[in-house]
Design a protein that fits this description.
about 280 residues; mainly alpha; Serine Threonine Protein Phosphatase 5, Tetratricopeptide repeat; 11 helices; rod-shaped
């Protein structure tokens, strides 16, 4: 009985000394989370250093991207152990986006300025400078109401610019093909450009040049055809003389002496000696 009690007591002590499986898993997860936070903290500090260096060079756009990354890391890590880094992130973030917003405001790009200043207020809602700038932007937009195109129409500008580039490329292709004498290919390109933009003067100009060149080519073809037909008619109406059927003259005939009778020779001789003073 005493021996059994002793064994049970020893087993109880061993079980009490052994760590619980659930507690071990929790501790391991906590350790892993601490390691991850430490890694992110190191990454946050290096990102802040890089952002400060880029900002010092005047590259506000790249600095803004780096501060965005830093702010994401701050949110992932939490506030407990990175108060200094969080303050640096908010300060740099706000200064960079405020600089971008002021530049956009001075260029009358109020939509961009509003987006940029809103980013500042999302990170630092109590930033008085950002609040004042946002009010100025709202006032400027109100004054411009009805004096500028709508956002929907402005959104169409990039597509219109892209189409204009395509039209200009077609016109240049057509011009070069025209200069190379490839009129059919050139006209196809220019016709496509003209259909896309009927007010394109360059496309209309080169189309007229091509049509004129094609007309001249066809006119020359008709002229040559007419000349050939006239030649055929003239040739058909020219009766053969028959001279081609005569034999070859005697190459050894080199005298003009008439070989005939004596009486005829006397007559030829008298005719040769007759001289007329007046006719």
């Amino acid at each position: 009985m005493i021996r059994t009690f002793t064994c049970l007591s020893a087993l109880s002590l061993l079980l009490a000394a052994a760590p619980a499986p659930a507690q071990t898993a929790i501790d391991q997860a906590a350790q892993e989370e601490a390691v991850r936070r430490q890694e992110k903290t190191i990454l946050l500090r290096s990102t802040l250093q890089e952002a400060a260096a880029v900002r010092a060079k005047g590259d506000l756009a790249q600095a803004a991207r780096l501060y965005e990354r830093a702010w994401s890391l701050v949110q992932e890590i939490g506030d407990a152990t990175i108060q200094v880094e969080k303050a640096q992130t908010i300060a740099g973030f706000s200064e960079v986006y405020l600089a971008l917003a002021k530049r956009s405001y001075n260029r009358a790009q109020y939509t961009d300025a509003n987006i940029q200043v809103s980013r500042v207020l999302r990170v630092d809602p109590r930033n008085e400078e950002a609040q004042e700038l946002k009010a100025k932007i709202a006032k400027a937009e109100k004054e411009l109401a009805g004096k500028r195109p709508s956002k929907e129409v402005l959104a169409m500008v990039p597509e219109a610019e892209k189409q204009q580039v395509e039209i200009n490329t077609l016109v240049q292709d057509g011009r070069l093909l025209y200069e190379m004498g490839k009129y059919e290919e050139a006209r196809a390109k220019l016709k496509q450009a003209f259909e896309m933009d009927p007010m394109n003067e360059a496309a209309d100009y080169y189309i007229r040049l091509i049509d004129e060149a094609r007309y001249q080519i066809e006119a020359r073809k008709r002229e040559n055809w007419a000349k050939n037909k006239i030649y055929e008619v003239e040739n058909a109406w020219n009766p053969p003389t028959g001279g081609e059927k005569l034999g070859v003259a005697n190459p050894f005939h080199r005298t003009n002496i008439v070989h005939t009778g004596p009486g005829r020779r006397i007559i030829f001789e008298k005719l040769r000696r007759i001289t007329l003073d007046n006719v």
